[in-house]
Amino acid sequence: MVASxxxxxxxxxxxxxxxxxxxxxxxxxxxxxxxxxxxxQGCDPLVLxxxxxxxxxxxxxxxxxxxxxxRLRILERMSGIDMxxxxxxxxxIIAIALGTTVPGDVAVIPWxxxxxxxxxxxxxxxxxxxxxxxxxxxxxxxxxxRLAWHSCCRVHGAALLDRCCHCTAPIEPHRLSPxxxxxxxxxxxxYDLRACHTMAADAGPLAFQITADDVVRCGYGKYxxxxxxxxxxxxxxxxxxxxxRVAVRNSSCNLAGCLAMxxxxxxxxxxxVTGLGFELLPVGERAVxxxxxxxxxxAGPRHLLESAQASSLRSATLRQGLPNLPAHIRDIVDALPNxxxxxxxxxxxxxxxxxxxxxxxxxxxxxxxxxRRIS
Length: 375
Description:
Elements: H1 30-41, H2 45-52, H3 69-79, H4 83-88, H5 92-97, E1 117-118, E2 121-122, H6 130-135, E3 152-153, E4 158-159, H7 203-218, E5 220-223, E6 226-229, H8 230-249, H9 254-261, H10 283-310, H11 315-319, H12 327-335, H13 357-374
Antiparallel strand pairs: 1-2, 3-4, 5-6
Helix pairs in contact: 1-2, 7-10, 8-9, 8-10, 9-10
């Protein structure tokens, strides 16, 4: 395996106002670099950021979405690292390349893993590779581990983890404190994450990850014979993700048969237990969806149209009520017949039918998720 392209180069030797200078490693994530800085000085991350930015509750927010210029200037003065290098270690530039912005008041941003924050506690949003930690001089978290299309370590050919393998707690390095000095330790139980066992990465999600990285790097991607700008390619990929999830929830429908004809293993997939958005799903569930999405992208628009016609799909099935569709999907939708079936009125009006079992299961899973965060 070879490493993916460099997301940012990091820094060399620096002149810092802190007693222990801590350079920014190549591809290091901004927020966890701050944690590494704090632990190197022998203080809690909350203490360090309180000195940098008084009255700003940094760790209740997603710092990696970007930091305002005036606050970056303070960090530049103290750390000795140029503002542009610090900004490059955030997710802001990548989000812009994907055609989105990173407002602080929006819980979920497309293709960026959501932290699921409640005060300083988090439900997820951060992944890691134990083998990468094992080869680091000082373990650090990579920026690419916050990207929702990343589910594998390309360097070691291993599936990423998003929880402690010992206590199953989410990864929260910002809750570490001295005398701990390594970020490779679980903040909940103290287990060394470098000892966690990893599974080999599946070919499907790894292939999608490599392709998506190349689309960001090159500024364009392919769909059949068409060349799409980065934002258009990711918009199309998100549309296919949505179709896959709809088909998996009803694997007997015509849509499921259509996607299966294009290579997506719909029958072998399970609906997300919680039914949450893609950026909130565990790494294993995301990996399966990405593999199926890669199959649909590789098939191209001509095969999608042929499969849709062979499966007797109506235009509404591919439209899914969306106001905006990817450009090349609109052409396929227009080529399909309109929905013309009439639905029979329910003769049992006034009666409240019980919820299906899968719906109850999903509600219960979400309730358990909330209870874990509160406790």
